[in-house]
Amino acid sequence: MKNTVINILRILFCIIFASMAIFVFFHPKKSQTNILKAVLSNSKEDTTLINLSNKHSGRFNVIFESDDMTQADAAQKEFLKLTDKSSLQSDISTGEEISDLLELYKTHHKKLLSKKTRTELKNDNYELIKKESLERLYNPLSINLLPLEEDPFLLFSDYLSMLSQQNTGDLYELDGKYYTILKLTFKKDISLSPTLLNLEMPKIIKTKEQIEQKYKGTNIFLTGSPVHTYYASSKSMKEINLICLLSSLFIILICKFYFRSYKLLLPIALSLSLGMLCGYMLTSIFFDSIHILTFVFSSTLIGICVDYSLHYFAHNNDLKLIFKSLTMSMLTTVCAFLVLLFSHIELLKQISVFTSGGLFCVYLFVVLFYPILCKNIKPTPANLDIFTPFNKGPQKIKIISASTLLLIACAGLFKISFNDSITDMYRPPKFLANAEALYNKLNKNNSSPLFLLIKGDNLQEILEAEETATKDLDQNSFSSLSKFLPSIKQQKENNLLINTLYKKELNNYAAFLPENIRTNLLNTSDEQEYLTYDKLKLPVLKDFMVDDHTSIIILQNETSQKLKNSQNNKNLKFIDLKNDISNKIKHCRTSCLKLILPAVLILFAILSIIYKPKNAAKIILPPLLAGLFVIGILSLSNRQINLFHILSLFLIAGFSLDYSIFRYNSTKNQTTPHLKSNWAVLISCATTVFSFFLLAMTSFRLISSLGFILSLGLTSSYILSLVLMPDTSAPSPKASDNI
Which of 546, 495, 482 is nearest to 163 (CA)? Predict the structure, then answer.
């Protein structure tokens, strides 16, 4: 009967695994490289933040530095010439595009006014208007884009002057060097097609090197989101391969020097492969895309899942001896990872599903298939006893050790401080950080802009809402779609204001024009056709639209705070990307802090049911002290605690409970070979700690934070399990052994 049930479970395992494989094969998921999607959720508010950040996710800057202004300009033109026009577009418009745009604006010039001039006309400041018009007229540097017969007050030139102030120019001089900036944009959304980025960015880097070789003395710097994404994802993939390689070598060495057999490698490799594949398939089923950092973290499965195989072989392939410990180990670890589902962070949810699914798959494979696959594998573990000092050591030393760790933990709590800044999650390489600093210095952009969200049922409603929100702002203090494209309502008002100006001041002001020209200007009937979004094919307009019903106004100076604090604008939605994202992370951190106590109580309840409350307290004490210890160490070393340090406490509890569970079961089960059980726990801890230690060396701070605290926490918990839970049932060393 028992064999029949096991066979049915084996068949179900194969059917479910095959079904998932077929589903994923026909519904493949793309990988995701957007860093913000790693730390934000899929809520509507967070999606808005991501969309805003993605407005320029495909845009990057190429900065040309040279001692010679002419050479910097020539290098820029050469670079633009060599770019792939099928995948990239430049912000530099062609002569034909500029000509078409000017002709369109000229056609509707009597419906276009700068914000400043419009305000003056509405306030009947005609004398000021005439004075400014005469200054433009007699300015030797002024360029009249319309003949005076059509625009005697040069209002069209004034409007274009306002638009030109949106750009800072492309030629800079700084510290005796000349700089030009070329702005390029990927035509396709690279956040949805990281493959495109991996194909195109190497070409851009190669072009950069070619230009630097051709124009000696010219340095080229790349900045922008695609550049950071490319370098981060490329390095992450290299780190994945290195971690997998080193972890695999570590396992091979264990098989050689402890088990003294390479035969174990085949079933271990098979179980790990199935676990990784199962984790990938489950993540593909539950998520629209898989973040590249999920793959980085999932490489730790090599260190975690191999534990089940090591315990199986260390106990002479006797599943009965370790089934209870193995099952409890799997449940507590999976529960620890499942807590990440409540973090509201997309990356951590993916890690939760990937790792929990992989662990459960490996557990089932070991329990169901190892008894039939490993019949002929009989490893002979080394019989080395290094645990006697812990098992039979003086009680005083154990008390002092535990007290010291507790003292460090308590001391650290008095110095604890938190850091929720998004910049703490990612530290760019030095050369990229220097390039970004140079770009900000050239653009005098030292602070992040404030975005004002404008919603409407259609484009005209959006434009009118923008004009209402910015009516009291200086025209140089913001950028918006309505600056380039006034609403039809405002175009009508502008036309009326210009006609009123003509009627009241034209004859007095424009005495330099023949009378018949002035008469024609006063009597000319205006066309009823207005400037629209479809006609105005200006690439910059797309930057202001978040979606079909939402636009953004970009506020860049102290005026933004005045607008934000105004009582008349309480219903407006403001977004400060850097601060809002940090606030989201802070909210997640506080939520996770509140989850710690319930998680501990749940684990304690589960353990109490199986082992009784007193024994459950003994089992759970080492992970709790280890978690407090690592937080204390971080605080005492003046490192601020971030969200991922807090989340790692859950993982320390889930992983290191295994050590206490296996040690407790071995001390209570008189048929268990104690020395082999101790070695299995040690090797299990070593493989897991080694994997997390490698993660601590990775370049991405988010992952390295988890790797560092987990490697330290698991090591501490293991040592505490030896000190606080000695194997009292293990035989004492014989006197002859000490001779």
Answer: 482
Enter the tokens of residue 32. Answer: 């995701």
CA–CA gap between residue 360 and residue 353 (Å, rounded): 11
Q: Where are the alpha helices (DSSP H) in 393-512?
A: 395-414, 430-443, 459-469, 481-484, 488-509
Count of CB atoms situated within 10 Å of the CB of 224: 21
Cα–Cα distance between 451 and 454 in angstroms, integer?
A: 10
Q: List beta partners, residue 453.
A: 552, 573
CA distances from 2 to 6, 635, 675 (A): 6, 53, 31
pLDDT digits (tens, 9 = 90+) for 685-718: 887 888 788 888 877 777 777 788 888 888 888 8
Nearest to 112 by CA among 165, 166, 162, 167: 162
Q: Could you give the count of Cα atoms lying within 13 Å of 35 in the half-sphere of its Cβ?
A: 24
pLDDT digits (tens, 9 = 90+) for 117-149: 999 999 989 899 988 888 888 877 666 778 888
Residue 242: CB atoms within 10 A of its CB come to 14
Say how far apart CA 474 and CA 558 lie, in whole Å. Answer: 11
Among 475, 599, 732, 584, which residue's Cα sits nearest to residue 48?
584
Calculate the alpha carbon distances from 69 to 74, 94, 223, 581 in Å.
9, 22, 21, 40
> Where is 573: in which H helix or E strand?
strand 573-575
Give, for 59, the enclosing helix (H) or strand (E): strand 59-66
In the block, tokens 């573990």 appear at 381
Beta-bridge partner residues of 203: none
Take residue 556 and report the two structure tokens written for it.
């860049």
- The answer to whether residues 513 and 148 touch, using CB atoms and an 8 Å cutoff, is yes
Question: Do residues 192 and 35 make contact, with C-beta atoms less than 8 angstroms apart?
Answer: no
Residue percentage of the chain with pLDDT more than 70: 82
How far, in Å, are 57, 201, 421, 436 from residue 225 at the CA level?
5, 12, 18, 10
Distance CA(660)–CA(511), nearest Å, equals: 98
- The kind and range of the H/E element at 634 are helix 613-636
30-32 and 289-291 strand pairing: parallel
Question: Is the confidence at residue 200, as pLDDT, over 70?
Answer: yes
8 Å CB contact between 264 and 255: yes
| Neighbouring C-beta atoms of residue 458, cutoff 10 Å | 9
Residue among 323, 155, 264 nearest 662 (CA): 323
Per the confidence metrics, is the pTM higher than 0.85? no
**Residues 57 and 226 sit within 8 Å (Cβ to Cβ):** yes
DSSP readout, 473-502?
A: S-TTSEE-HHHHS--HHHHHHHHHHHHHHH
- Give the pair of three-digit tokens for residue 644: 């991922």
φ, ψ for residue 15, nearest 5 deg:
-65, -45
Q: Are 361 and 274 in contact (CB under 8 A)?
A: yes
What mean pLDDT do residues 399-412 have? 77
Tokens of 35: 């860093």
3-state SS, 218-280, equals CEEEEECHHHHHHHHHHHHHHHHHHHHHHHHHHHHHHHHHCCCCCCCHHHHHHHHHHHHHHHH
Contact 310, 362 (CB under 8 A): no
Among candidates 723, 711, 696, 713, which has minimal Cα distance to 627?
Answer: 713
Residue type, 66: S
Distance from chain centroid for Cα 401: 40
3-state secondary structure (DSSP) of residue 461: helix
- Could you give the CA distance from residue 527 to residue 525 in angstroms, rounded to a whole number? 7
For 429, list phi and psi in degrees, rounded to 5.
-60, 155
3-state SS assignment for residue 403: helix
pLDDT tens-place string over residues 86-128? 788 776 655 555 677 788 888 888 899 988 899 999 998 989 9
Distance CA 368, CA 326 (A): 13
Answer yes or no: are the C-beta atoms of 261 and 205 closer than 8 Å. no
**What CA–CA distances, in Å, run from 28 to 279, 288, 511?**
14, 10, 74
